[in-house]
Amino acid sequence: MTLSSRNKLFLLFCALMLAVAFSLFSLYIYAWFSNNIVIPPHIETGIKSKLSLISYRYPAVVLSIAALSLIAPAGVFLIYRSFEKTQAPEVFYFAVFFCGCAFEGLRLLIPAFRLWQSFSLLFLMIGKSIFFSRIFCPLCFFASALTSIRDQQMHLERNLIVIVAVAIIFAAVVPLNTAVTTGRLIIPWGYSILFILVRICIFIVTALTLFFTAIQHDNKDMIRSVHGYIMLAAGYVLLINTDNYAMLAAGLLLTGAGTYEYLTKTHHIYMWL
């Protein structure tokens, strides 16, 4: 992929994600003012229910979804501006990761159209899309780490097709429990513990791959970029699981700081090549 075509693709991603986010926000706001919003029931017990900062708050859920919907185009545009004249394979997957985050905005449709109250094809497709995103995003990080292998730098499109295919296959075959919708506006999927462990393993393997590559090259900027990745990954995990204001604040802070650290240090690396 040439630098020019990559930049045009980034701008297209930004435009599409902004259009989708605006449409989803408009539908949700219209439903809110029309008093059509129906929130899925959520029961919380134990110490968490007694502490206001970590107890369940529906507005925190909505704000985290809105944040992810806006972070996605903002992140891709920041990559475009920072690497407009730099061919950096890592940032291609980083941009695609942000595109995967944009799928989280679909969760707003669940209370806006009361989809959780009955089964529908739209409800099922939203659940499948969210599960696709939850598999797709960690794989994008892993693919970014693999660009440290010189042979893999030449196969961006091929690797992306593989990532998309893997995420689609899992989203298609994994069953969803459409009879239940959580307070986070998530439709639970089967083998949830297994897939949580798989995603954790992907994040850890990615961090180790980036770290050992940085040690191998004895590059301080690479090591700092690993710190940025870890903060970003932690922030992303917090935001997609947010159900209180403490998680929302921590997720936004880590995502912002991690994105800045990762992009600035990656840019420094390519400046000295």
Task: Please describe the structure with a list of short key phrases separated by commas or semicolons.
273 residues; mainly alpha; 70% helix; 9 helices; single chain
Describe it.
This protein has 273 residues and is mostly helical. It is 70% helix and 0% strand. The chain has helices at 3-33, 58-82, 89-101, 109-112, 121-146, 156-173, 192-217, 220-240, 245-271. The radius of gyration is 19 Å and the shape is globular.
E-strand count = 0
Q: Which consecutive residue ranges, at least 5 long each, have pLDDT under 50?
A: none
Shape: globular
Distance between the termini: 20 Å
Mean pLDDT: 89
Percent in helix: 55-70%
Please count the helical segments: 9
Radius of gyration: 19 Å
Order of helices and strands: HHHHHHHHH
Biggest sheet architecture: none
Strand content: under 5%
The helix-and-strand class reads mainly alpha
